[in-house]
Design a protein that fits this description.
Blueprint lengths: L32 E4 L13 H6 L8 E4 L14 H47 L1 H36 L4 H24 L5 E3 L6 H23 L3 H5 L2 H19 L1 E3 L13 H7 L6 H30 L14 H12 L12 H31 L14 E7 L3 H11 L9 E7 L5 H9 L4 E5 L5 H6 L7 E5 L7 H18 L5 E5 L5 H4 L12 E4 H14 L3 H8 L13 H9 L2 E6 L9 H10 L4 E8 L9 E5 L12 E6 L2 H9 L2 H4 L59 H6 L7 E2 L19 H7 L5 E6 L10 H7 L12 E5 L1 H7 L9 E5 L5 H6 L7 E6 L13 H11 L2 E2 L44 H4 L17 E2 L5 E5 L24 H5 L2 E3 L5 H8 L1 H12 L4 H10 L4 E2 L3 H5 L5 E6 L6 H4 L4 H12 L2 E8 L13 E5 L12 E6 L9 H6 L2 H9 L19 H17 L24 H8 L19
Parallel strand pairs: 5-6, 5-8, 6-7, 8-9, 9-10, 16-17, 16-19, 17-18, 19-22, 22-23
Antiparallel strand pairs: 1-2, 3-4, 11-14, 12-13, 12-14, 15-24, 20-21, 25-28, 26-27, 26-28
Helix pairs in contact: 2-7, 3-5, 4-5, 5-7, 9-10, 9-11, 12-31, 17-18, 17-25, 17-32, 20-36, 31-32
């Protein structure tokens, strides 16, 4: 054997023919056998020289045919043919390059020659003249057209080829991906063949890998032709990396087929195709972000360079140096070369594997320079890109049978913790909902820890809802709902609302059918949601306006203090905290554990009246039902559902009626659905009421029988009273009570209400007409009014005072029951708010500051029914602890004020003082001669059980032994932004600064309100959208989607004429406070049971009681100076009452309380006396024998008549809004002790007992 083939034989694959016997290849190359001489013997050792081997002559024998194997050389001389493979590539490359350069040279010479010839011909044409020039131009034009046609054909082919390789069409994309996939396949074949010798005999017809490689390269050749045709610059195309790869990989395959031998050669260059990996992924629309494209580019370049260099080392090390006759080779596998290149690039160089050949070492010298630079630059950048990849950048995988919701917007530790605390509360039935948070900022460590604690139900993904790709990641199309949280503490509420509206637009644009519940900060921004075509509140879309609800809660506290706390606790999920000690916290926390739930009523209730079902649920099922969802049976409103709050005894329960309950657990509410009269009628323990085996009716919403005539139907409230009802508070005096037709038509030509009939309305007034100076306010002697202290300036964000005024101007109050509202604050700020307030009556403004005691005394803050403290500057301060500084200072300032021991004589001239903006010309605004004004109250001025609250002989065990009356007795409610600041409102309480807001004394007493309590409405609305409708109906005074659409169009209430339809809208329930100190329920006030009071009020007056407002120290047996009260929600039946309790109740609208003052003024004193003798249902039953009454009814009436005659002679024009037989009080014109006035004030509902000077009322 020749020496050139040695050196690698011992290693099993060094040279092409080393390590075996010398054989002669038969001349029949295409046969699959070899012909050897019979005289050939075993060859000499591998160290014998080539010359000596060739000089040996063996005797010839017959030819022996043996199969070709991988280890057998292909000729007897051991000649290697690597140069043939390499020559094919070199000839192809340089030959093509020569042709391209030759073509360019010839083309250049042709262009130069044609250019010179063209100039000569052009000169001749000019010399021959224009006529001859025209004749000679004709054949030239024809020639140019032919050339243009040829160029057009070639251009079309070129464009077609360009389209095929540029992935602009589906076919092109498939072709590009297929070429890349086949290149990777060819590289894999190279990896397989690298375990074989560098050069070996291969039979094409039997070698499967060679056949596959041949097919691949034929395809590459065709693709090369397409690329060549599409190339604009053929020279640069010939020098491209992909072209060089094809030159050194495609021709050697055809040579392999021809020579029946294989050479690994430069097939490793196929690894350079990996550089195009990022382009392929972009064609497939997999890579979309710049970071991902850059990362794939770096990885593909690094890996392709690494694998290519390893292939070259594998070639030269296994072959040896040509000038050393290939004797210095070493056997290295391909993967050992890969390892060698990696330790070389990283400059580690262990030395266990190294290059022995000169070519290998020379290559390593240059590779270290480039590889080290690449390793030092690429690897850190790759690590940085991988490290900067979003940790939460995956996609949500939906779980079969489990819903998921998407929560986005303002995602912080506080907002998320509040949301999860309420959403995942244990009192809810099994919450089989997964919560997916989507935010564009990664969570901090605290928020990340919170997610990990709830990892079974919470997932977080980083992204934006404005990006459709991120919406697809969280599977928004299959989500049950999308909840958007707002930043309640932002400096610019309008900008925050705009951001949330854009989120809604993006989500609805991606999936119009998704249900969205979003928080809004400003009421006027809700109108923009109506501009979104796919926004549909009927399908569950809801906007929770924080300003609307916050100010609505505060407004309801002006009518019934403590109601804001009770309602806030009802829609918040609170765990029951048991306290053994007999303290006020024990009873308060028992009520806090109640929440609002909905459940369908059992068929056993069908046909019963609402009060009957309500009583049965309370007594037997231990459930409090306050409202139902009524489905109208009219054709025109068949699908319309309305929520009716305490509708009265005219409404009969339908099949499938949905009830609204107050209970401590969702499982308790199931009793209303499971109740069966046949099975559960004799059960006393409500826990035993469970599903029975009786057959139940199946309800169909479209087949509900009508139980209410259309004439009695109402919107958003109770049903109209009828003469056949149970005892009602009505008058029987025909002189004073007009009929129903008269009520509907007597003021039909005057606009007194808005177009919907839900609110009192007046013509727009200029702000100058309602501004009071300090002296004018002091002369007015305001009483029983509402003082609103507002902090704000010209740059403050508007808080929407309309939402505070609207509930106080609800039409279910009679005009004389409306409390006068006085705003004290910056006139610059109030001018900006006035556009939304100028249509409401009884509104005045005192320019000033709530921190000025002179301004506060001018508006008689000690005589007000409620003082509200608001601030529009709270979110402009970075320090959260200072956000409430103005409100806290104002609250402490008022509490520290001292007032004189006497009010003094109420001074008024014969005409009285008319505040600016009030019209005296109206008959209703003129003083009524000879009549005293009774204090207006929350629950109806004609109900003596409410007006006569304090009797001298029944004062409770409360001692107010103060020499001077202080501001601590003024009823106040303060708005807070930061919950922890509640500790500064009461200096005498013992609340821990870390105590939750709902556990603090100011919140429990209803003197503080924070917007954070409204966070629970998000989850409550998701689980039951009717809850939000019910809360909004209770606190806004009757706002409806139709009214919101109207305000969105005009930004103001529109006045409307009084029609039977609009007047019918007044007939709805309102919240009131019922005193137990006197009246028909006085016998229950002293040790009676709450359940007896509940049943009596419901049966007798259709009043639905739902809570108690009790003195904080009422449980003590010793007198106490504390006059603070706290809220008890839904006490049990056996709960013991005390005389000082105030009862929260839902009261029916009283048609007869608002009588025309014109008829009263025209009536004479004799008619008044006669009317006083007439029976009145408003009079208190069985009060004649009540103890501690100083005078009988007749003597008191006589005394009142005498006093009124005396005042008429003195031309003192007092007025009254109450009928004369409603037991007017003995009010004398002499100084009254404010000590006694404030002592009495503790037991009245929300009205003042001080008769103010006539305030001319601009009833429009």
């Amino acid at each position: 054997m020749a020496n050139g083939g040695g050196g690698g034989g011992s290693s099993g694959g060094g040279g092409g023919g080393g390590g075996g016997s010398s054989l002669r290849m038969s001349s029949n190359i295409h046969a699959n056998h070899l012909s050897l001489d019979a005289s050939s013997s075993s060859s000499s050792s591998s160290s014998s020289s080539s010359s000596s081997s060739s000089s040996v002559h063996e005797p010839k024998m017959d030819a022996l045919i043996i199969p070709v194997t991988m280890e057998v050389p292909c000729d007897s001389r051991g000649q290697r043919m690597w140069w043939a493979f390499l020559a094919s590539s070199m000839v192809t490359f340089f030959g093509g390059l020569f042709i391209i350069l030759l073509w360019r040279t010839l083309k250049y010479l042709w262009t130069v020659c044609c250019h010179c010839g063209g100039k000569t011909k052009e000169a001749q044409k000019i010399n021959n003249g224009s006529s001859q020039a025209d004749g000679t131009l004709k054949p030239v034009d024809e020639k140019e057209e032919t050339v243009a046609a040829e160029v057009g054909w070639m251009t079309s082919v070129k464009d077609w080829a360009g389209v095929m390789i540029s992935a602009q069409t589906l076919t092109g994309r498939v072709l590009v991906v297929l070429v890349f996939a086949l290149s990777i396949g060819a590289l894999v074949i190279y990896f397989i063949d690298s375990s074989n010798p560098i050069e070996s005999c291969q039979n094409f017809y039997k070698d499967f890998t060679l056949q596959i490689d041949m097919a691949f390269n034929v395809f590459f050749l065709l693709y090369f032709g397409l690329r060549f045709i599409a190339a604009n610059d053929k020279l640069w195309f010939w020098l491209e990396v992909n072209s060089v790869v094809d030159f050194f990989t495609v021709p050697p395959v055809f040579v392999s087929v021809y020579l029946n031998r294989s050479w690994l050669g430069l097939r490793f260059l196929r690894a350079l195709r990996l550089i195009q990996f990022s382009e392929i992924l972009q064609f497939l629309n997999i890579l979309k972000t710049s970071n991902s494209i850059k990362l794939v580019n770096l990885l593909s370049i690094f890996i392709s360079t690494w694998l290519t260099a390893a292939g070259f080392i594998h070639l030269v090390e296994n072959s040896g140096d040509p000038w050393e006759n290939f004797q210095n080779n070493q056997a290295l596998t391909y993967w050992e070369c890969v390892y060698l290149l990696m330790v070389t690039m990283s400059t580690v160089g262990y030395g266990d594997v190294y290059a022995k050949t000169t070519l290998g070492r020379l290559f390593m010298v240059f590779f270290i320079l480039g590889g080290l630079a690449m390793f030092a630059s690429y690897v850190p950048e790759i690590i940085e890109l991988i490290g900067n990849r979003k940790k939460y950048g995956g996609s949500y995988s939906a779980v079969s049978g489990r819903k998921h919701i998407v929560v986005c917007g303002h995602i912080t530790l506080e907002s998320v913790s509040n949301f999860l605390k309420d959403f995942l509360h244990k009192d809810r039935d099994d919450v089989n909902v997964e919560i997916v948070f989507l935010h564009n900022i990664s969570p901090n460590l605290e928020l990340e820890a919170l997610f990990k604690r709830h990892f079974t139900q919470v997932e977080f993904y980083q992204g934006s809802v404005l990006n459709p790709h991120d919406l697809a990641r969280v599977k928004i199309e299959s989500a049950d709902a999308c909840l958007i949280l707002a930043n309640k503490y932002c400096a610019d509420p309008d900008a925050e609302d705009a951001s949330n509206i854009m989120r809604v637009i993006s989500i609805k644009n991606y999936h119009p059918k998704i249900r969205i519940i979003t928080q809004m900060l400003q009421y006027h921004n809700k109108a923009h949601l109506l501009n979104i075509p796919s926004w549909n509140w009927k399908e569950g879309d809801d906007a929770i306006c924080l300003a609307e609800l916050k100010l609505g809660f505060i407004a309801q506290s002006c009518l019934a203090q403590g109601l804001s706390t009770m309602l806030a606790n009802l829609f918040s999920m609170r765990s029951f905290i048991k306290i053994e000690e007999d303290t006020w916290q024990k009873y308060y926390l028992e009520g806090v554990s109640n929440e609002m739930y909905t459940e369908y009523l059992s068929s056993a209730f069908v046909g019963l009246s609402f009060p009957t079902v309500c009583e049965l649920c309370f007594v037997k099922l231990k459930l409090l039902m306050i409202a139902i969802e009524y489905k109208s049976a009219n054709r025109e409103s068949r699908s319309r559902k309305r929520i009716l709050i305490n509708p009265g005894n005219h409404l009969k329960i339908q099949e499938g009626t949905l009830g609204f309950f107050i209970a401590s657990d969702a499982k308790e509410v199931k009793r209303a659905f499971f109740y069966c009269k046949a099975c559960h009628d004799d059960i006393t323990d409500p826990k035993r009421i469970k599903k029975c085996g009786c057959k139940r009716l199946i309800y169909f919403e479209d087949e509900q029988p009508s139980t209410l005539s259309p004439k009695k139907k109402q919107r958003n409230g109770g049903m109209r009273n009828s003469p056949s009802s149970s005892p009602k508070l009505m008058r029987h005096d025909p002189l004073l009570i007009p009929g129903n037709d008269q009520i509907d038509n007597m003021d039909s030509n005057v606009k007194k209400y808005d177009s919907t009939g839900m609110f009192h309305w007046c013509a727009p007034k200029a702000i100058e007409k309602v501004i009071l100076t300090r002296s004018e306010a002091a002369m007015t002697v305001l009483s029983g009014h509402v003082v609103v202290c507002i902090f704000g300036d010209v740059s403050s964000a508007l808080i929407g005072l309309r939402n505070l005024v609207m509930p106080l101007r609800a039409s279910n109050f009679h005009y004389h029951e409306l409390k006068h509202i006085v705003f004290v604050g910056s006139i610059e700020y109030l001018k900006r708010e006035w556009e939304t307030l100028h249509n409401f009556p009884k509104v005045s403004i005192l320019p000033g500051t709530p921190l000025s005691r002179a301004d506060l005394r001018a508006v008689n803050i000690n005589l007000c029914d409620m003082c509200v403290i608001l601030s529009a500057n709270q979110n402009n301060i970075d320090d959260t602890s200072l956000q409430d500084k103005e409100c806290i200072l104002a609250s402490l300032n008022i509490k520290s004020m001292q007032f004189d021991d006497s009010i003094g004589v109420l001074q008024a001239n014969s005409q009285g003082f008319t505040p600016p903006g009030m019209d005296r010309s109206s008959p209703d605004n003129s003083p009524v001669h000879g009549m005293l004004r009774q204090p207006s109250i929350t629950t109806g001025v004609n109900i003596p059980i409410i007006t006569e609250l304090a009797k001298p002989g029944k004062l409770p065990l409360v001692s107010v032994n103060q020499e001077k009356n202080s501001g601590t007795h003024i009823l106040m409610i303060t708005e807070l932004v930061n919950d922890t600041n509640v500790q500064f409102l009461d200096q005498d309480d013992d609340d821990d600064p870390d105590t939750e807001l709902y556990l603090t004394q100011p919140f429990a007493c209803g003197t503080a309100f924070a917007v954070s309590v409204l966070d629970s409405l998000m989850s409550a609305t998701y689980f039951n959208d009717n809850i939000l409708t019910l809360i909004r109906t209770l606190v806004t005074g009757g706002a409806t989607p139709e009214l919101e659409a109207l305000i969105a169009e005009e930004n103001a209430l529109r006045g409307g004429y009084s029609t039977p339809q609009t007047l019918a809208n007044r007939d709805r329930c309102r919240v009131a406070q019922l005193a137990l100190l006197d009246g028909p329920f006085a016998d229950l006030g002293d040790g009676g049971c709450y359940g007896d009071l509940f049943c009596k009020a419901l049966k007798t007056y259709n009043m639905l009681c739902f809570g108690i407002y009790r003195l904080r120290d009422a449980h003590l047996s010793t007198p106490s100076q504390c006059t603070k009260r706290y809220v008890i929600t839904n006490p049990p039946y056996e709960f013991e009452l005390v005389p000082t309790d105030l009862i929260f109740c839902l009261m029916q609208f009283d048609h007869n309380a608002g009588q025309s003052r014109a008829s009263l003024s025209h009536s004479s004193h004799s008619s008044q006396s006669s009317s006083k003798k007439s029976s009145s249902v408003h009079s208190i039953p069985s009060t004649a024998n009540r103890p501690n009454r100083p005078k009988s009814r007749e003597s008191r009436d006589k005394q009142n008549a005498t006093r009124m005659n005396r005042m008429g002679q003195a031309e003192k024009k007092w007025f009254t809004d109450e009928p004369d037989n409603a037991y007017p009080r003995n009010i004398q014109i002499k100084p009254m002790s404010t000590h006694m006035a404030n002592q009495i004030n503790q037991y009245k509902s929300t009205s003042s007992l001080i008769p103010p000077i006539r305030e001319v009322e601009d009833e429009c």
